[in-house]
Amino acid sequence: MSKSYFMPTRVIMGNNCVVENSKMFSTYGKNAMIVTGKSSAKINGAEADVVEVLKAVGINYLIYDQVMSNPTVSCVFEGADYGRDNAVDFIIAIGGGSPLDAAKAMALIIGSNLSEDNLFSGNYTEALPLIAIPTTAGTGSEVTQYSIITNDVLETKIGIKTHLIFPKVALLDAKYMMSLSVVNTVNTTIDALSHAVEGMISIKASGISDSLATRSIRMIMGCVPTMMEVLEEEDSTLFTLEMREKFLYASTLAGMVIAQTGTTAVHAMGYALTYNKQIDHGRANGLLIGEFLRFTEKGEPKLVARVLEAMDIRRVDVYIDMMRKLFGELEPISNEEIRTFSAKAILAGNISNCPVIPTVADLEAIFMASFGVK
Fold first, then answer.
1. For every residue of 52-102, which 3-state class applies, written as one string?
2. Which CATH class name applies to 10-176?
3. Whole-model pTM?
């Protein structure tokens, strides 16, 4: 299999990087649409900084702030209609993975004039330029060609994949993460970890992507003891700006990884947990990775050993113990639910990225072991 590396997004990092790069916004037009959630971008100051910049450089703007967690098809079309009706030239996405993914879909819907029937068709021609400003450190969506949308018809999350929705610019400022709750910080950070780990496991991994993944994994695992202390002490001040910067950097690196490698069975299984059990995406992935590594280890022991080396641990059990301590009590899940989730997950495209291809029975066993189901 040939290997490639393509990451066209310009990444700008540092304190006040949004305001300090105000002239860059003018590159993409005179009418912008800010896409975000209802409140977080207002609380953390990101929206105010963007508005200040747009006013300073004379760019007209409107705000679509109705993106919910796990955005739906109807949400992205509502936002796209709003942008199209106001003739926007480009989109500025502010927030975690949900606003960023929703904004990408909106940019594609407007640029390619898509209907709901062909949103997931793969037949795309153009997308509006997009600037991404992440305010969580988890999805890495600011540097990927993916948009993950909840499809209520199919009762799962479905990914759009096209190079057209790589953001033109990603602006990384960790100060926007300072108001993020402890639980959200932990969940999003482990989401980033899952991207890096799955990227190393993927059959599409290369020397370049593995270098990025290893760096991301080491940064996150080095912060796990502090994460445990924060949870024990219930003291979010231990998440300093410096540590937030590490989380953000690690998340972006992991995003660069999956932009090349895709994800694996962990994501396919995790989507079912998020849609049907309302388990946070990062938490779901974190709880599944350990048993997925154990399954993969049976056929590819050297590959899993490399992942464990990056984590600075020797055994999969050590990782599983860490996640149990981080996440606490497990959600109840029935055997019937496991059979249903596994039957859906096996149909996902990212199953083929696994070096050891699981069967439905294998997925059921991973679910059962991950959640302690007999």
1. HHHHHCCCEEEEECCCCCCCEHHHHHHHHHHHHHCCCCEEEEEECHHHHHH
2. alpha beta
3. 0.96
